[in-house]
């Protein structure tokens, strides 16, 4: 029951510690100024502290006390106890002096030993730390060397790869140049062949699978020879083109065919082609010859087609 | 009976305060004496609250360690030395119990017998601990005269370390009912002890 704002009904629970923290604080604050409630609290506290005797006492194991006393003994002293009395018997003054000197000397040596030991221990520690640092540095150097070796190997490998790429690139450039040359030649030949004044002349031989046509123009020393179905010449040999008229055989280009089965040759004669009577292709020794051999692969007549310096018929 | 084995209560109280003063000055022999005087009760309370001997032993050691370290803070005007020591032990035990609330246990778990009603069957060392038992007999007699509901609520609060709301939940009763049981039970205990012409402070020394 609350009377005149005195929290008397809550005081038992307050003493037992079962109140919420806020209510406990309120009663505690009230008790500071209210002597009646303070007396009430103390009365219940007196009852409360009798409760431990309501349980059955038990003797704790002996080690509990031993551990407690050991803990106390190991703890720093709380304060100096009663000063110890001087001994009943006295020591001669000279012995006191000697004893004091010896104690001072022992203390000095003790301090010196302690300092030296501490210094030695510190140096040992520093030495051990330095050794560890040295080991760590060596390990780092080893790792660095390994990394450098790997980088060098990689660099060499990269250079080789770059050289290979460069070589391939040069080959590609050369191939491209060759293709461009071939294209230019093909375009030139196509232009020559398709020109309205151009006349074809067939060349024939023993091998019926080989077909060749020579394209020529009046009063033009240039001609184009297109060959199909001709086999590659034997090793050490070469094909050679000839221009001939009675009593004269003029050697011209030497060549071999490719596997494309179509060979286009650009012929430049020493005089307009229509001034010659016939052309032929022979097989010669590698390097060519000044006089044709007896191995004639193809031949064709030119004179019947177009008279020298004669106007081309419509 | 008690006078034959121990000094009078007032004399004992004065002696406890003197012992605490010596403890405050760093006299471990004085603490040794206080230990022999109160460790049985402290251990009994801790054992009853915690239910485990090892934890109760820790409470005993920590209680008297704090007595050793804090004896200088003890104020005789605020109560008896025994009450101060029991307060330390009780707080330590309840704190430990609350730390272990992850596996809550009832104060009845050990033998299904209420702590306070179990008191009368525990007089095992009558000769050596006559005073303890006499005090226990007085408290026990008073406890038997309050209602079982009031006794149970006080028991759960003191030995179970439960708040009023926790007790209400445990007993499935309204919190107002629990407050009333605790209030009436403690008041009746106080009146019973006074009726025996025993001051509560005499009971504790």
Protein architecture, described:
The complex is a heterodimer of chains A (314) and B (205). Chain A is an alpha+beta fold and 314 residues long. Chain A has helices at residues 11-16, 21-33, 35-48, 62-74, 93-193; strands at residues 199-203, 211-216, 222-228, 237-245, 248-255, 262-268, 278-285, 296-301. In chain A, a hairpin with a 2-residue loop joins strand 4 (237-245) and strand 5 (248-255). In chain A, helix 2 packs across helix 3. The longest helix of chain A is centred in the middle third of the chain and has 101 residues, at 93-193. Chain A is rod-shaped, with a radius of gyration of 63 Å. With 205 residues, chain B is mostly helical. Chain B has 10 helices and no strands. In chain B, helix 2 crosses helix 3 (28-50) and helix 3 packs across helix 5. The model of chain B is unreliable at 1-8 and 104-128 (pLDDT under 50).
Using the coordinates above, name the CATH class of the domain at 199-301 in chain A: Mainly Beta
Overall domain count of chain B: 2
Briefly, what CATH class of the largest domain in chain B?
Answer: Mainly Alpha
Mean pLDDT of chain B: 77
Largest interface: A-B, 43 and 73 residues
Shape assignment of chain A: rod-shaped
How would you briefly describe this protein structure?
The complex is a heterodimer of chains A (314) and B (205). Chain A is of the alpha+beta class.
How is this fold's topology laid out?
The complex is a heterodimer of chains A (314) and B (205).
Chain A: H1 11-16, H2 21-33, H3 35-48, H4 62-74, H5 93-193, E1 199-203, E2 211-216, E3 222-228, E4 237-245, E5 248-255, E6 262-268, E7 278-285, E8 296-301
Antiparallel strand pairs in A: 1-2, 2-3, 3-6, 4-5, 4-7, 7-8
Helix pairs in contact in A: 2-3
Chain B: H1 2-5, H2 9-24, H3 28-50, H4 53-70, H5 81-99, H6 130-143, H7 148-158, H8 164-171, H9 175-195, H10 200-203
Helix pairs in contact in B: 2-3, 3-4, 3-5, 4-5, 7-9, 8-9
């Amino acid at each position: 029951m609350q009377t005149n704002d005195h929290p008397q009904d809550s005081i038992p629970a307050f003493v037992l510690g079962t109140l919420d923290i806020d209510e406990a604080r309120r009663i505690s604050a009230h008790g500071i100024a209210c002597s009646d409630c303070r007396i009430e609290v103390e009365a219940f506290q007196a009852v409360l502290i009798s409760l431990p005797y309501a349980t059955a006492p038990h003797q704790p194991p002996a080690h509990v006390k031993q551990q407690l006393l050991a803990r106390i003994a190991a703890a720093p002293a709380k304060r100096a106890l009663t000063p110890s009395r001087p001994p009943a018997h006295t020591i001669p003054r000279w012995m006191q002096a000697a004893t004091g000197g010896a104690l001072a000397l022992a203390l000095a040596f003790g301090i010196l030993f302690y300092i030296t030991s501490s210094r030695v221990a510190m140096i040992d520690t520093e030495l051990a730390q330095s050794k560890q640092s040295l080991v760590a540095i060596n390990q780092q150097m080893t790792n660095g060397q390994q990394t450098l070796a790997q980088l060098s190997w990689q660099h060499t490998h990269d250079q080789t790869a770059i050289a290979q790429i460069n070589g391939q690139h040069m080959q590609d450039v050369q191939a491209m140049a060759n293709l461009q040359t071939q294209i230019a030649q093909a375009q030139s030949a196509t232009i020559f062949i398709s020109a309205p004044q151009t006349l074809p002349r067939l060349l024939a031989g023993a091998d019926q699978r080989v077909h060749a046509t020579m394209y020529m123009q009046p009063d033009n020393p240039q001609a184009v020879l297109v060959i199909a179905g001709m086999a590659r010449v034997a090793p050490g040999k070469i094909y050679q083109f000839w221009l001939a008229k009675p009593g004269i055989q003029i050697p011209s280009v030497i060549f071999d065919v490719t596997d494309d089965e179509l060979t286009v040759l650009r012929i430049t004669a020493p005089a307009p082609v229509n001034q010659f009577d016939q052309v032929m292709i022979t097989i010669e020794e590698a390097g060519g010859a000044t006089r044709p051999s007896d191995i004639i692969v193809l031949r064709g007549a030119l004179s019947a087609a177009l008279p020298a310096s004669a106007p081309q018929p419509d | 009976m008690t006078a034959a084995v121990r000094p009078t209560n007032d004399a004992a109280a004065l002696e406890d305060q003197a012992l605490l003063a010596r403890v405050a000055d760093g006299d471990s022999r004085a603490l040794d004496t206080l230990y022999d005087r109160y460790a049985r009760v402290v251990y009994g309370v801790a054992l009853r609250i915690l239910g485990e001997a090892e934890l109760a032993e820790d409470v005993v050691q920590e209680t008297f360690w704090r007595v050793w370290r804090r004896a200088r803070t003890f104020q005789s005007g605020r109560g008896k030395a025994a009450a101060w020591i029991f307060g330390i032990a009780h707080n330590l035990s309840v704190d430990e119990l609350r730390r272990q609330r992850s596996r809550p246990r009832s104060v009845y778990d050990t033998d299904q017998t209420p702590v306070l009603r179990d008191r009368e069957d525990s007089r095992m060392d009558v000769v050596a601990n006559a005073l303890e038992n006499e005090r226990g007999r007085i408290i026990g007699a008073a406890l038997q005269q309050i209602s079982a509901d009031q006794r149970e609520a006080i028991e759960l609060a003191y030995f179970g370390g439960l708040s009023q709301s926790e007790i209400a939940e445990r007993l499935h009763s309204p919190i107002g009912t629990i407050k009333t049981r605790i209030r009436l039970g403690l008041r009746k205990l106080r009146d019973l002890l006074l009726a025996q012409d025993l001051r509560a402070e005499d009971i504790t020394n």
